[in-house]
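Z., the sequence and structure:
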Amino acid sequence: MNSDTTRAPETTDSAAFWENHYAGVDPQWGTRPNAVLAEVVTALAPAPGVGGGRALDLGCGHGGDALWLASLGWDVTAVDVSATALERVAAGAAAAGLADRVHPSRHDLARTFPDGAFDLVTASYFHTPVEIHREQVLRRAAEAVAPGGLLVLVEHASLAPWSWRDGHEDVTFPSPDEVLASLRLGDGWRTERCHAPERTATGPGGETATVTDNVIAVRRAHQD
């Protein structure tokens, strides 16, 4: 697994977009975990015991989720296309005494993906203004889940997985069966959480807005 934060994947417009984004954002913004993700993980994937568990944080961004998971005892592979994001994650982990549990890994998920099997895979607001094979990436995320493990997706309503089919207008919230069908995961999975709470979000400049999040948590069977 590539843990080199300086070695770039094949250059993409997505990488350039996110480097520009992080260049203008306070390094301290977003270092707390996503509250919705934290609630779901706490309920469905309690902190690992002695020996830890393996977690994969896709699109780790500012690092709040990765650092929070590491603080609970998870061994976290933190993935992003932005070298700046990964540098922030590494610095935050070192400052918190978690450097041995947080492993930054630079990937453009449309082309390269981390190897291995993980007990927990999270993808919060996994989106980009650049066209990618979104469906393919999320299926690869599911393939990375170890038997008995959990895949958690947290996204804005307009970017939900079923919008691959319906476009971004008039998105309706799905049933658990519709979630599994949209991800094409087969019979070896079950939905453990599927809801869309409203919450107040705070942006990099301190502005607030009410947003609707879709939370999807699916568990892989211990034996497919």
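DSSP finds seven helices and eight strands in the chain. The chain has a mean pLDDT of 75.

Let me know what you think.
H.
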